[in-house]
Specification:
By secondary structure, the protein is of the alpha/beta class. It has 13 helices and 18 strands. Helix 11 packs across helix 12. The longest helix is centred in the last third of the chain and has 19 residues.
């Protein structure tokens, strides 16, 4: 993915948001910068000093990103649509052919900025009463606004709406949004349009890059929880709802009963494999933790001899985490960042699974979204 940002502050902001998802972005100010191992390339255009050369500069960097193989291009707009948002959008649209589509997703709900009826709003005191007509600011007056009545119905409804508009000849869209769910739906639609063969240029204030793009990393994530708290059970249900048929929620006992052939088939057909022991009430919780750990070790042994690798593990509970690290033969952990309070990230050091990403949380902590966020951190989705 290539992202064009107006200035360095915008560049750092969007790169950090990608980093929160577990992606590896690099900020570029010179085309000689090495970017081979990056998931996303963020270009600091420094338009403040470009003057009349802004359009040519945007086109030059757009061509450079495409030469790197960046099939998805995005422009990071100023949070209040100040600066040169119209030049950014015009520059990125020049690459589009008759199949080209422009999606503008200006909302950033967690930063207090929403989009309603195509107007970017931020009520006092968060945004000083911001009220900007997005289509006018970007000079895309012919764009169709996809309103909240459609977004509230989910990605399928948005996709149907966009396809109907495409059939009428509409190629530009501004998507409303007031909550994170709306941004997630917009991201799914953009990915579907890419899959349909369209060239999709996107513009946003950076809010939706929590969901877009899904880079489709090959492999699976294993989620392990005794699920002995109501909070953990709610988190497990939310994870299942978010991934649908791509997630399998089962017990450690069931997973342990699979032979290698069945296990390989299960792992190959799911992005998420969540193991729990919800129905067990063993007074010795260490027994449950060990059973969960042994089941995970069995699955990882199978995956290590195939093409479908484990990208990482998300574990709930201190006993379960300890049992799993022991079972995997880890001699130590390399600490990372705390994703949420009581939700640290680490990597297993030593043993057969040296370097495996391990995201853990205390039992019963977090919101309904916590397990889902931790899983997406590993998937980069």
């Amino acid at each position: 993915m290539g992202i064009l940002a107006e200035d360095l502050q915008c560049s750092v902001a969007v790169a950090c948001r990608l980093r929160q998802r577990g992606l590896e972005p690099v900020i570029v100010r010179d085309p000689s910068t090495a970017v081979a191992d990056a998931d996303a390339v963020v270009v600091d255009l420094d338009l403040h000093h470009a003057g009349h050369a802004a359009t040519a500069l945007i086109e030059e960097w757009t061509n450079w990103l495409e030469s790197l193989g960046c099939s998805r291009l995005e422009v990071k707009l100023n949070a209040e649509l100040r600066g040169s948002p119209d030049a950014l959008v015009a520059g990125i649209e020049r690459r589009n052919d008759e199949n080209g589509i422009l999606l503008v997703v200006p909302a950033y709900p967690t930063a207090g900025r929403v989009c309603v009826d195509g107007r970017l709003l931020a009520p006092m005191p968060v945004g000083n009463g911001l009220d900007v007509d997005v289509r006018t600011a970007l000079r895309i007056e012919d764009a169709e606004v996809v309103g909240l009545s459609v977004l509230n119905q989910g990605s399928e409804a948005v996709m149907a709406h966009v396809r109907a508009a495409l059939a009428r000849g509409t190629r530009r869209f501004v998507l409303d949004g007031t909550v994170e769910t709306h941004l997630g739906a917009a991201a799914q639609v953009a990915s579907r349009l890419h899959e349909d063969g369209h060239r999709v240029a996107t513009a946003s204030t950076g809010g939706w890059v929590r969901f877009y793009p899904d880079l489709g990393r090959d492999g699976f994530v294993v989620v392990v929880t005794p699920a002995n708290h109501d909070t953990d059970r709610a988190q497990l249900r939310r994870l299942a709802a978010a991934y649908g048929t791509r997630a399998l929620i089962t017990t450690a006992g069931e997973a342990a009963s699979w032979g290698p052939v069945v296990a390989r088939k299960v792992l190959a057909s799911h992005r998420i494999l969540a193991l729990h022991e919800t129905d067990r009430d063993d007074p010795d919780r260490w027994v449950i933790a060990e059973q969960l750990a042994k089941a995970v070790r069995g699955l990882l042994d199978v995956s290590s001899h195939g093409d479908n690798k484990c990208l990482g593990a998300v574990v709930s509970g201190g006993l379960t985490t300890t049992a799993l690290v022991r079972e995997l033969g880890g001699t130590s952990l390399s600490a990372g960042l705390e994703l949420e309070p009581l939700c640290p990230a680490a990597r297993v050091a030593g043993g057969a699974f040296d370097g495996l990403r391990l995201l853990s949380k205390a039992s019963g902590t977090g919101s309904e979204e916590t397990l889902l966020r931790m899983t997406r951190q590993i998937l980069g989705a």
